[in-house]
Amino acid sequence: MPSDSLPFSSTVPGSAAGAARRPALLEQILHSDDLTYRAGQAVSVIHAHRQRGHWLRLLLLPGPAPEVAALLGERLQRPGASVGLGSSLGHAQHLLGRCGAPLGTDPAPLHAVVAAGGVLEVIPGTLEAQVAALTQTLAGALDAQARATQPVAARGLFSFRRSRGPDPDVSVQAEQEVQAALRSLREALGALQAVPLRGTALDWDDVPLP
């Protein structure tokens, strides 16, 4: 589909009536909890590289599972592997490691990616920092939820031989915190402004002042 005829969704799940219409590609991400979390991780990594002085343009790439990537000049950069909500890895530690790791360069020619159509560029703003912070909050909540599901050692005589299941109240609270963090992240991602990518040349307004 040509980039100048990108479909836009007329409704936004969970938003008030009259909210700004979003690109269908962004809606596709927001309709999936897992894609929302993965997109948050990718934005966090790209934001971390921007903080270190790299001028990167933030892209949304279409596909069965849309991805977030970066553009450095005419090189397409990938933020590395993300983890899903159900991963057994330490979420906060994994996110920290990704933010400190170099970006990978996609071997696909950029002109071919752009010519295929449907690529969106996120307009730079302050929301990327908010998305990064909320992704960290969600990662921490997921780690807390994993701890809450672990058996708890029983106290008392011969307690070293006994254990009991997770505290149901703690487990419920941990799940509620995960869902609250996920809702906040989805809301922040949904507020991003994105436009079809029409070219790779930078305008003067795109170049940060020293």
Instruction: Please summarize the sheet with the most strands.
Output: 6 strands, antiparallel
Beta-strand segment tally: 10
Query: How much strand content do the residues show?
Result: 5-15%
Structural class: alpha+beta
Order of helices and strands: EEHHEEEHEHEHEEHE
Query: Which radius of gyration do the C-alpha atoms yield?
Result: 20 Å
Average pLDDT, rounded to a whole number, is 83
Distance between the termini: 38 Å
Shape: elongated
Question: Can you describe this structure?
Answer:
- There is one protein chain.
- This protein is α+β, with helices and mostly antiparallel strands.
- The radius of gyration is 20 Å and the shape is elongated.
- The protein contains six helices and ten strands; from the N terminus they run E-E-H-H-E-E-E-H-E-H-E-H-E-E-H-E.
- Helices cover 41% and strands 15% of the residues.
- The strands form three sheets. Strands 6-5-4-3-7-10 form a six-stranded antiparallel sheet, covered by helices on one side. Strands 1-2 form a two-stranded antiparallel ribbon. The chain has a two-stranded antiparallel sheet with strand order 8-9.
- The two termini are 38 Å apart.
Key features of this structure:
alpha+beta; six-stranded antiparallel β-sheet; 6 helices; disordered N terminus; disordered C terminus
